[in-house]
Amino acid sequence: MVSGRDDRARIRRALIDLCWERGLAATSLPDLLARAGSDEETFHRYFSDLEDCFFQVYSGELERFRREKAAAAAGWISWRDRLRATAYALYRFLAADDRIRWLTAVEVRRASERSQRLIGEEVEALFELIDEGRGEGAPEGVTRMTAESIGGGVFSQIWVAAAEKGPMPPETEIVPPLMSMAVLPYLGAEAAEEELTIPPVEHRRSPIYGALIDLCWERGISAVTADELAARAGMERSEFDRRFGGVDSCLDQFFEAEKATLFPRLDAVRARQADWRDRLRATAYELLAFLNEDQRAARLTSVDVRMAGEQVQLNWAEAFTRFVDYVDEARAEIPPDLGLTRDTALAVTGGIFQQLWTRIGEGDGVPEPREVVPEMMYMAVVPYLGEEAARQELTIPPPEVR
Quick one: which of 62, 143, 244, 250 has the fewest CB in 10 Å? Predict the structure, then answer.
């Protein structure tokens, strides 16, 4: 039986694909239903009409970007650092998926008034952030109009890049020049030139997130206080409270930033594979490679995060659900009379991750990918494709050496 979650996901993906292929204006409800393999009764359980469907898809993507943007900027203290982190978050959101980029940067500008209002809110938020530069010792004649002019230029350049139906130019060709343009009126030519040489920001290296990783590694999340976290990061406690309000909120923002780094990497390796097994195998190797890049951050996001508060748990559950989705794609490649459901994927994914978390939590660290991925793939494949196919996974080498 197909779940409501599956119904909505198919309709959502069909709308994104049709907007990419022909545009929203040339898409009808029958077109959408045919592409999604759905019917009007199912559609109207979730959406009132085609415009409402577009609005829900767009607002959902916008909310995801806002979470990623907030998580990226929250870890930095200075205005320049926060603006730069925001710029990279915007670029990476748009660059991660060509079709999502087209919908959120191009098609939405042809959509309904309420979708247009959401664009206006996001533009206004950028103006506000840029305008904070006036508090950094800017010349007296700089006004709010300066921020609006710069912000308009930033969005125009990004929209031009996003409107091309191919890969975006490298982030190093877009973000540093935009940062230089944004900084110039407030901090002068020297700071503007410096922006052209600053390497891309990595969320986990911001002072507050670095302090969080260090303290949790030393004593565990339950023993970390807001006072010592702020002090370790070189941040005033009042500023910490204003941005986060507590250790759990800081951890939630950090986890969001890690997701914003990880999932585009997974999307990229998955896009190169047509077969479910190959996609899942590439996903597993990339996930383990990511976790191995920072063992301390990996412990925080796989062990300590599950001991934190409700909001962090919800964020963790959302990430876990995406991995369940990856496994559940197998049902499209097997006969329906096997009777497997999404619960099969849930059980498989839970078992695999539990073994991984146990190993990390017991102090063994993140294993090397080739040590564990074949066995993980065996566990994932056997319910869907049987013992013979699962045994093959024990001998298949990593993607990079095939």
Answer: 143
* Contact indicator for 247, 225 with CB cutoff of 8 Å: yes
Those residues whose C-beta lies under 8 Å from the C-beta of residue 384, and which sit 6 or more positions away, are: 330, 331, 333, 334, 338, 340, 344
Q: State both tokens at 57.
A: 């898809």
At position 47, the amino acid (one-letter code) is: F
- CA–CA dist 225, 200 (Å, integer): 30
Q: Which of 56, 101, 89 minimizes the C-alpha distance to 201?
A: 89
Nearest-CA neighbor of 235 among 258, 196, 262, 207?
Answer: 207
**SS3 call for 193:** helix
- pLDDT digits over 357-382, tens only? 888 888 778 899 999 999 999 999 99
Residue keyed to tokens 């609005």: 55
Question: Which residue reads 């017991």 in tokens?
Answer: 362
User: What does pTM read for this prediction?
Assistant: 0.76
Each residue of 69-127: pLDDT tens digit?
A: 988 888 788 999 999 999 999 998 998 888 999 999 889 988 889 999 998 899 999 99
382 closest CA partner among 340, 353, 321: 340
Q: Give me the residue spans of the domains in the chain.
A: 80-201, 245-401
Question: What's the token pair of residue 290?
Answer: 């990511």
d(C-alpha 295, C-alpha 291), whole Å:
6
Q: Which two tokens stand for residue 136?
A: 């950094």
Q: How far is CA 140 from CA 41, 85, 186, 395, in A?
A: 61, 26, 10, 68
Interatomic CA distance for residues 360 and 75, integer angstroms: 25
**Torsion angle (degrees, nearest 10) of CA 381, 99, 45, 263:** 50
| CA dist., res. 82 & res. 257, Å (int) | 13
Half-sphere exposure of 347 (CA within 13 A, CB side): 10
Given CATH 1.10.357.10, say whether it is the number of domain 245-401: yes
